[in-house]
Design goal:
By secondary structure, this protein is mainly β. The chain is built from one helix and twelve strands. It has a twelve-stranded antiparallel sheet, with no helix packed on it.
Length: 238
């Protein structure tokens, strides 16, 4: 029977532990599928925009419904050398109308974040690997001014992860929910939520900023502000 020196045994143990750690690291699922990065991926959303205008008495409520189509037209390297999606966005009143180009946004998925440039504002939408109760400053890159000061100080938080989700008859095995902000007091309410599904990306979004009419039932009694909601209607590769 062979006998090993204490030094050789210690070396074997260190190598074994290092190998286990390496295996553990390589098995971590970073869940990038929640923010797919594929040329040709498209998504169609039903959108509802509700505005409350207190210039009128009672406040005027205006509701507009339309559809949005987002297409990952190409992937290019940004000024930091990161692969970045060029997202062409189209709009139409309903399914009987032709699509009209609306604007172009971009999105970048790094090893630790998913970022979107929306109307020249840079948001950190997701943090990888996601886990329930994980928080981050999703609006850290924003230039805050009087037009968007309500976005200041938001702390994004993942509240649900790897949960089934259904929307417009589409069923997903795995989704995650991010509450971007939830604040309410006697005179106003600000709320923002996004839901992502594996393989599809964003499937639901709602953002609201409302001033309350304290004499009426809320939210129907809102006197100023907006509620904007989008829901996935269709997605795939084109």
């Amino acid at each position: 029977m062979k006998h090993f020196s204490p030094l050789l045994l210690a070396l074997i143990v260190v190598v074994a532990i290092s190998s286990c750690k390496k295996d553990d690291n390589t098995s971590v699922d970073l869940k990038y599928e929640y923010f797919p990065q594929d040329t040709g991926l498209y998504a169609i959303y039903d959108a509802d925009s509700v505005t409350f205008d207190d210039f009128f008495n009672p406040p005027l409520v205006d509701t507009v419904q339309f559809q949005i189509k987002e297409v990952v037209e190409s992937i290019f390297n940004d000024n930091e050398g990161r692969p970045t999606m060029r997202i062409e966005r189209y709009r139409r009143a309903d399914s009987t109308q032709a699509w009209t180009i609306w604007n172009v946004w971009t999105a970048t998925r790094t090893t630790t974040t998913a970022e979107r440039y929306e109307d020249n504002m840079r948001f950190i939408k997701l943090s990888f690997p996601p886990k329930v109760e994980k928080t981050w400053d999703g609006n850290a890159y924003l230039q805050i001014d009087e037009t968007n000061d309500f976005l200041e100080g938001w702390e994004y938080q993942i509240t649900k992860l790897d949960q089934p989700y259904s929307i417009n008859g589409i069923n997903f095995d795995s989704s995650l929910t991010v509450i971007q902000h939830d604040e309410e007091n006697l005179i106003e309410k600000t709320y923002s939520e996004e839901v992502y599904a594996k393989g599809a990306g964003l499937v639901y979004k709602q953002i609201m900023k409302l001033e309350k009419d304290v004499t009426a039932t809320f939210p129907a009694g809102a006197k100023a502000g907006f509620i904007y909601t989008i829901r996935l209607r269709e997605y795939g590769q084109q």
